[in-house]
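Troubleshooting: if your tokenizer reports a length mismatch, compare your output against this known-good record of 409 residues.
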Amino acid sequence: MQASPPIGTTALAKREARLAWGLLSPTMISVSLVVVLPLLAIFWISVKPVSLADLRPASAIVREDVRGSGDELTIRYRIRNSTQDKIISDVTFQDTLPESVSLSDTPPDNCAVSGRTLTCDLGELAGGQREQLLIPIITTDEEAAEAAIENSDPIVSSTSTNILTDTTFTFENFRRIFDGDEFWGVLGVTLFYTVFGTIGALVVGLFAALLLNKEFRGQGILRGLYLFPYVAPVIAVAFSWLILFDPFSGSANALLVQMGAIDSSINFFGERPQALIMVTVFEIWRYFPLSFLFILARMQSIDTDMYEAADMDGATPFQKFWYLSVPQLLGILSVLFLLRFIWTFNKFDDIFLLTGGNAGTRTLTVNVYEQAFAVSNIGAGAAVAVVIFCCLLAFSFFFFRFMSQEEGL
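Known-good structure output:
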């Protein structure tokens, strides 16, 4: 009997494979453009001494206007280096003189006129250097000439180095990050916020799903209310929390003082360690509905026969939950833990709106913002982003290597 060819080696299989790759190629290209290229750009910038000022390449800026009157008219060209620390070489510009204008004297040595085209070679401009050229002219219509000259733009060409594209590399950005205790303190805050925020959201979502897993009147309305923290605009709920827990006019402080629980108002979002605890509680409250939805959907797909058998055997509600429900929910809980951990580790807007990263709530993502924009060090901000990526990569490897095997994922 003739053996059949291996799977995937027939002509039809090869055509199908080529068709599949052709259909997938637009998606793969889109993912590369949206995800891979920005990621590579962050790695590139992290080893470059780049500041906000370096994002705009050095260039020569030329402005022209008309000075004087009558027989002493001159075209004044003001040239300056747009940066304060970079050298620009081969600086030249060309300008077309209006028809009603002619030179009254020879131009400067570094300028030449061909027809109505004025060309000037300025050579090299140091950082912050300014130059001025005066070209003597005569005209029959002074107002028209002045308007034509000031409305025209000289064509400028120059050569300068761009730190984003040159071969200058440094690990100073990473040295700045890891030197001192600041980084490890920020990393500790990030891990506290991420771990407790993730676990808290899962636990609260689990209990919310247990409460709504039974049919009762008004169940749909209550489910909708449970989703409010997740679907509400983050800026609205963040400022609502700030007003609620304000130390001077907040309802929470007033209620606690009247109940005798505290003697004086507490600055929940302005002091350590309350601020970190509060932003973590806010994270749990805001994102438990996502866990609630997934866990409830999984609960309602569990076969009820084994619960009926457990009732006949006299199992308690806790025993049914621990020995029947939890094993069925481990898969979805593992996936939710992975997703929530990654999203919380990358969370920026919640903390920034609540505390701005002050009072011991500065996480790695807030540090990226502060390094890149507050300190104007784009390279250091990119280096912190690389550290975040490496941390999440290590966590994902650990999760899929160990935890997912235990859960059978």
